[in-house]
């Protein structure tokens, strides 16, 4: 008889624990549901509004026309100029961010001591927290005049200036994730390389880097997505004039910069020009999706190899 209260207390405790775990499970499910629902909602808005846009503009003209002049009386809605500007600025940015971010990650993971790492990491995080509008004005008033010393024919707005500064802004994302991936490589692999007579640099490049390649590629994909979707830097430093060119020495407009321009109220709500921002946004989302799918396939392949 004396054991009955203990049994009841134990059952009550188990019931409370199960209830608490159920509540936590519901909260976690709700958080996951919100993220999925938000993504579905964004896709629904873009697709539904783009359908109205394509009722007035031919999809063939949208993907083949070389002019983007929605604000003119003779309006053209060819996405190619905006797409060219987006890809050019992204390529310039990635040509800066990927090499420098990888080098920084290798240094912090394999060569820097604890004190240096504790100093550099906060600065990288601070660099990643600078508002992009600040980067844009830095590109316009500092980087562009410096580039004009080397290239006197460079205009006041250029994709080169915007892309270089955008690359600097992306470095913290790539270096931080790549370093985390490299530090996750087991120390036994490094010790085995050292035992075979390899130097620290050889170990970093031939052992640690290949072993962490899947995570490093994830950092690259994040950098690509960040570059493709960048808005304020290119809006300030690259100009707002659509230009079908891949020459980084010229000004151009990107997809995201055009969306910002129209969102400021230049076109009335419900007009074809206003609906064009949803078609442009859908094109930007599809472009980012393609890069993410390619990155996923590459990560999967290298994960199987290593």
Question: Mind summarizing the main beta sheet?
Answer: none
CATH top level class name of the largest domain: Mainly Alpha
The Rg value, from CA coordinates, equals 25 Å
Please identify, by name, the CATH architecture of the largest domain.
Orthogonal Bundle
Query: What order do the SSEs take from the amino end to the carboxyl end, as H and E?
Result: HHHHHHHHHHHH
| Stretches with pLDDT under 50, minimum 5 residues | none
Briefly note the CATH topology name of the largest domain: MetI-like fold
| Overall pLDDT level | 84
Instruction: Please give the domain count.
Output: 2
Strand content: under 5%
What's the total count of β strands? 0
CATH-assigned homologous superfamily of the largest domain = MetI-like
Short description:
Helix content is 78%, strand content 0%.
Plain-language structure description:
The chain has twelve helices and no strands. The radius of gyration is 25 Å and the shape is globular. The protein has two domains: 3-55; 80-305, MetI-like (MetI-like fold). Helix 1 crosses helix 12, helix 6 runs antiparallel to helix 9 and helix 11 packs antiparallel against helix 12 (272-305). It has helices spanning 3-54, 59-64, 80-111, 114-128, 132-150, 159-183, 187-195, 200-211, 213-228, 232-237, 255-266, 272-305. It has 306 residues and is mainly α. 33% of the residues are buried.
């Amino acid at each position: 008889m004396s054991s009955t209260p203990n049994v009841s207390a134990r059952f009550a405790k188990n019931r409370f624990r199960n209830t608490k775990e159920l509540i936590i499970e519901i909260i976690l499910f709700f958080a996951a549901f919100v993220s999925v629902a938000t993504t579905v909602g964004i896709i629904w808005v873009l697709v539904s509004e783009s359908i109205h846009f394509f009722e007035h503009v031919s999809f063939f003209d949208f993907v083949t026309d070389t002019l983007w002049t929605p604000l003119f009386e003779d309006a053209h809605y060819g996405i190619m100029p905006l797409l060219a500007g987006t890809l050019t600025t992204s390529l310039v940015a990635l040509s800066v961010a990927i090499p420098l971010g990888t080098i920084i990650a290798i240094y912090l993971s394999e060569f820097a001591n604890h004190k240096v790492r504790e100093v550099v990491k906060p600065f990288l995080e601070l660099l990643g927290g600078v508002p992009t509008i600040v980067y844009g004005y830095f590109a316009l008033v500092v980087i562009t005049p410096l580039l004009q010393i080397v290239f006197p024919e460079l205009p006041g707005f250029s994709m080169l200036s915007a892309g270089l500064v955008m690359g600097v802004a992306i470095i913290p994302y790539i270096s931080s994730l790549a370093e985390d991936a490299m530090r996750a490589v087991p120390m036994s692999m490094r010790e085995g390389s050292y035992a075979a007579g390899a130097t620290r640099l050889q170990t970093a490049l031939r052992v640690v880097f290949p072993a962490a390649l899947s995570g490093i590629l994830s950092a690259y994909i994040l950098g690509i997505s960040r570059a493709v979707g960048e808005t304020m830097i290119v809006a300030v430093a690259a100009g707002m004039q659509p230009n079908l060119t891949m020459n980084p020495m010229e000004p151009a407009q990107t997809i995201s910069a055009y969306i910002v321009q129209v969102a400021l109220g230049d076109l009335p709500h419900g007009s074809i020009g206003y609906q064009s921002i949803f078609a442009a946004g859908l094109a930007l989302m599809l472009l980012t999706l393609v890069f993410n799918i390619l990155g996923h396939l590459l990560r999967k392949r290298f994960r199987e190899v290593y």
